[in-house]
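Aim 2 progress update. The chain analyzed this quarter is reproduced below.
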Amino acid sequence: QVQLVESGGGLVQAGGSLRLSCTASGRIFMLYAMGWFRQAPGKERELVASINPSGSSTYATDSVKGRFTISRDNAKNTMYLQMTSLKSEDTAVYYCYQGQGSSRYWGQGTQVTVAS
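Predicted structure tokens:
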């Protein structure tokens, strides 16, 4: 049974930083691409960042480039999203995922609230 558990969300002032973590279990961690989506109230879920299985290639959506960094530690079965220079528009529930298509699993989500 695949499980993804997120942590690290919370309330932060604009300009501040947070680090989200996503720890996975149930299958071989290093074999799967992973990433983060977010969903703000009244908006569609959007891809924030993704990372390939080895961690050698990453993607970040334009609105977070230069502010958010995705990384992973395959020895710890954990993926991270380091978020800096946070803005009010980053407020959302952040979801981690592992895998693609019918083999994709999701975490339960963690709330990030940026106060302006």
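The chain has a mean pLDDT of 97. The first strand starts at residue 3 and ends at 7. These observations will guide the mutagenesis experiments scheduled for the next reporting period.
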